[in-house]
UniProtKB/TrEMBL annotation:
Matches recorded under InterPro entries: Acylphosphatase-like_dom_sf, BLUF_domain
Domain (BLUF) ranges: 5-97
Protein name: BLUF domain-containing protein
Family annotation (SUPFAM superfamilies): Acylphosphatase/BLUF domain-like
Species assigned in the record: Undibacterium curvum
Superkingdom: Bacteria
């Protein structure tokens, strides 16, 4: 039986060591290699030292990746937005897609409701307002190859 899927999203702030495009690039190389091994997919958005990240995969794999993320000294103020079971992957072809967003785009995504329970009218939709905004942003963004 296939493992149940899980998603986690958080925001954080870069520390000094992640202040150049080269440092972010090196992080992406490392993160993508690990995510591929764990079969974790998702996206990382960045604006001027602020990050938003969405991860999806089996619960064990997402936990493992998130543990690495929490241990990283390259960012701080990690604030979890959602952590819950999901029915399907939305970023299945991205081991870690990356895009630069505007400050207001990141703010809107981070401040949206991310829990299904709070957003779901009569169980009709399985996509929270936060995920809807993220998917819309991703479809229209100049994303980088994963
Ligand atoms: C914003 C951010 C996103 C990250 N995303 C991932 C990820 O998706 N997968 C992963 O394995 N590690 C991820 N990491 C951890 C890094 O790949 C790397 O292991 C870590 O930055 C190395 O530790 P250090 O930053 O303390 O030097 C992330 C780190 C940061 C700061």
């Amino acid at each position: 039986m296939p493992k149940k899927l899980y998603a986690l999203a958080y925001i954080s702030t870069a520390t000094e060591r992640l202040s150049t495009p080269e440092a972010i690039d090196a992080l992406l190389v490392d993160a993508r290699a690990f995510n591929r091994k764990c079969d974790v997919t998702g996206v990382l958005l960045h604006n001027d030292g602020s990050f938003f990240q969405y991860l999806e995969g089996s619960k064990d794999a997402v936990d493992l990746v998130y543990e690495r993320i929490r241990r990283s000294l390259s960012h701080r103020n990690i604030c979890e937005l959602v952590s819950e079971p999901i029915l399907l992957r939305h970023f299945s072809s991205w081991s870690m897609g990356f895009a630069e967003g505007s400050a207001s785009e990141l703010q809107a995504i981070a401040q949206a409701h991310w829990n299904h329970e709070r957003s779901n009218l009569k169980g009709a939709s399985h996509v929270s307002p936060g995920l809807k905004l993220l998917l819309h942003f991703w479809q229209n963004s100049k994303r980088c190859v994963a």
